[in-house]
Amino acid sequence: MKGTPPMPKVMPINRREWARQLGLSNFINAYYQYRDVQEIGGCKTVLIVGPGQGLERVVFEWRGFEVTTVDIDRTFSPDYVGSVHDLKEFVSGQFDVVMASHVLEHLAESYLDPALRELARVGKYAIIYLPVHGKHIQWRFMTGARKVDLSVVWDLFNFLKRADGMSPRYMSGQHFWEVGLRGFKVKDMKVRFSAFFEILHVYRNRDWLPSINFVLKSMRTE
Prior knowledge:
- By secondary structure, the protein is of the alpha/beta class.
- The protein is about 25% helix and about 25% strand.
- A seven-stranded mixed sheet has the order 3-2-1-4-5-9-8, sandwiched between helices. A two-stranded antiparallel sheet has the order 6-7.
- Strand 8 and strand 9 (about 210-220) form a beta hairpin.
- The radius of gyration is 17 Å and the shape is globular.
């Protein structure tokens, strides 16, 4: 990699307008995050990294969780302003679970491992959702009560393509990399995560195909 990777910074879009938008994906992700936390069990304190439109906070506080938010951008009214790769505001093991839904891809690759290290440091568990590159086709069979729910997903993109790790190229200049590109395939991400976490569950969000979801347990030893 040539040159110096860009420091994490606020998104170069109309952030105030984006913060007012509320789409189906917001509700889907909020549901899956709540479901994942319920399956972990015993969690009371939650750190949300990148609160976005704020729906997750409403859901978790409504269900009795103690919620803290952090974001690099004051636009989203976080409790703390800071980057996920340097969570110095928080002590080790402060939260039962930390959540970063479609956040880490906004970091250049050189900041990815430091961010994972920080998430593993401040949280006992972590829920990390990441975007899957390309176009997606799904075959799905469901019964009315969802007692049967079968799904097969095909991703259409060049598997040999590699993120350059320097210049954000996706989502109007928002993403430095996405799952599926060379160096960021699912197996590559598992290797990265395994340096800091025990991987409990990895699954494709069949209700929102551009998302692959990881449920992790911190291996913090300090």
